[in-house]
Design brief:
Largest sheet of chain B: 7 strands, mixed
Structural class of chain B: alpha/beta
Oligomer: heterodimer
Largest sheet of chain A: 4 strands, antiparallel
Radius of gyration of chain A: 14 Å
Order of helices and strands of chain A: HHEEEHHHHHE
Radius of gyration of chain B: 22 Å
Number of helices of chain A: 7
Shape of chain B: globular
Strand content of chain A: 15-25%
Number of helices of chain B: 14
Structural class of chain A: alpha+beta
């Protein structure tokens, strides 16, 4: 794949100017995660207004794909029902990211969504869906 | 090892021996393979030898009384003798085929460590150790109650030998496990000196030569160490075969590591006795064709000349260090060129190594990005990961130029 295809302007823009960067205080839900293979780190904090995500912010460090995808995710989920986001498919995020990803880079792109799901399911006391529990074997969530 | 120091290496000519370079990357870009520290490419001679062995001489070894079995056994034992001569071991009975260096080092950690370590003993590794010579010792130290410690490195990426006596003050040092050449920094460690110090403490010295054996002459008798491991796939040979050399008196006293077929002398319902060296440590069917391929790979690199390889890679390292210093925002880790082999780890300011490697890949330049199985070293360097370019006898200067051009593209993309 060409570099221009992978490092689209929008990816680089989100990497250099991350949206929703910071910490929500006080948080109703939070979690962090890392990809032990490359050291990407993301932590996410969420405040809820009833069933709706009132505010969501992230902090992290790592490759452009992991940080840009998480930044895009912040814009995608703010103001949406928490239940809907907890059930959100990975394809929805990947469509937004919009770049071809090898299996290794796919994990970079999904790190933020994994952390978000862990935070929401933990706050509700529900188990992670199976497809994410599988990812949790390769990414470390806490 | 009969090689002449004057022999010059012609990388462009040698490349013709490697079929991989006949294939373009991403359709049109010639491959600049700068990841030989992870694994080397294979010359046609090695591939052909393995195919010919399978086609004409293959059977299981040490069993058949039929002709094919005898020829296969002869080829396998011939490879053992080849490996013995390669590291100047006194006897081929001291040469054990394993599956890789990790298996070789685990064999020593379990086989020697479990019986000989106890509470209060000190097991010493280094901060630049690959996980393969770090994790087994950390684990066996915990199992036996021994203390585990790591020799720190200096800011130049060399072992801080001034710390040695402080470790001896902690208790009886029983093991010093050290790498000959750092797989991240390229640093060549003073193994002779470390082995001599270990023996003064009454310790054994266990050497990981994975990154040394492909790139410079290795002589276990001159080093004075007690165990040394190397692997085939990093020196133009196949995957799946490694070598452990150990001193005979130590190997004979050691417990076996893997148990099963071939490593036994007699099995009854009550008890089992062990086979002679080296069979005692070679349970199960061996990597037979891989050993045959390894022997041919050793022939190949010895014909090129280990001294010539070492000298050529040092030139490449010096050239790479000079060119990389021209790129703004690039920080190189490790010592000066004369103190290292052809391995260069670096960091590009503000860009994650995965992004560096991905953009370089789009230019046909293959480098490694990650922690290189050196997490304690990455912690010491204060980075989660690095990018690493590593060279071998087929590396061209112009590939280092392509690396530097690619880094300009990385900087432009992330400007």
């Amino acid at each position: 794949m060409s570099t221009d295809e992978l490092y689209r302007e929008v990816i680089l823009d989100h990497y250099k100017n991350p949206r929703g960067h910071g910490v929500v205080e006080p948080a109703d839900a939070e979690a962090e995660g890392m990809n032990p293979l490359c050291g990407d780190e993301v932590s996410i904090s969420i405040s809820l207004d009833g069933e709706v995500i009132e505010d969501v912010k992230f902090r992290g460090r790592g490759c452009a794909i992991s940080q840009a995808a998480t930044s895009m995710l912040m814009e995608m989920v703010k103001g949406r029902p928490a239940q809907e986001v907890a059930e959100m498919s990975r394809e929805e995020l990947l469509d937004e990211v919009g770049i071809p990803l090898t299996p290794i880079r796919l994990k970079c792109a999904l790190l933020g969504l994994g952390v978000l799901k862990v935070a929401l399911h933990r706050a509700k006391g529900t188990p992670l869906p199976d497809e994410w529990a599988g990812l949790a074997d390769e990414l470390e969530f806490k | 090892v009969a090689v002449t120091a004057e022999k010059r290496l012609d990388a462009r000519r040698l490349r013709a021996d490697f079929p991989i370079f006949e294939h373009a990357i991403h359709g049109s870009k010639p491959l600049a393979y700068l990841d030989s520290a992870a694994s080397s490419q294979k010359p046609r001679r090695v591939l052909d030898a393995m195919t010919a062995f399978y086609e004409t001489s293959y059977a299981n070894i040490h069993r058949g009384v039929y002709d094919l079995g005898e020829r296969a056994t002869e080829a396998y034992e011939g490879a053992r003798e080849r490996a013995r001569a390669f590291v100047n071991a006194p006897s081929s009975r001291e040469v054990i085929f394993t599956h890789n260096v990790t298996a070789a080092l685990n064999l020593v950690a379990y086989g020697w460590g479990l019986d000989n370590l106890g509470p209060g003993d000190v097991v010493l590794v280094t901060e630049m150790e690959h996980h393969s010579n770090f994790v087994p010792w950390q684990y066996i130290a915990r199992r036996t109650g021994a203390n585990f410690a790591a020799i720190p490195i200096t800011d130049d990426g060399e072992l801080d030998l001034s710390s040695l006596d402080s470790f001896a003050a902690r208790g009886p040092v029983k093991v010093l496990a050290c790498t000959y050449v750092s797989n991240s920094l390229g640093t060549v460690n003073p193994v002779e000196r470390l082995a001599a110090w270990a023996h003064e403490q009454g310790a054994i010295c266990v050497v990981d030569a994975a990154q040394a054996a492909p790139h410079r002459p290795v002589d276990v008798q001159a080093l004075g160490c007690d165990f040394l491991g190397f692997t085939g796939h990093k020196l133009c040979g196949p995957t799946g075969v490694g070598v452990l050399w150990g001193r005979r008196e130590l190997l004979e006293r050691m417990s076996p590591f893997e148990l099963g077929g071939h490593m036994i002398r007699r099995v009854t319902l009550e008890r089992t006795t062990w086979n002679e060296l080296p069979a005692k440590f070679e349970a199960g069917t061996a990597p037979i064709a891989e050993a045959v391929g390894l022997a041919v790979a050793i022939d190949y690199i010895e014909e090129v000349g280990l001294d010539a390889i070492e000298a050529y890679e040092r030139e490449l390292a010096a050239y790479a260090l000079g060119r990389l210093s021209e790129v703004p925002g690039v920080r190189v880790f490790g010592p000066s060129a004369e103190r290292r082999v052809g391995i260069v780890s670096f960091d590009v300011d503000g860009v994650h190594p995965h992004d560096v490697a991905q953009i370089l890949d789009s230019e046909g330049v293959a480098v490694r990005a990650g922690h290189h199985c050196n997490q304690p070293l990455m912690t010491r360097l204060g980075v989660p990961a690095t990018s690493r370019a590593s060279f071998y006898l087929y590396t061209l200067r112009e590939e280092i130029d392509r690396l530097v051009d690619g880094l300009a593209k990385v900087r432009k993309t992330f400007a």
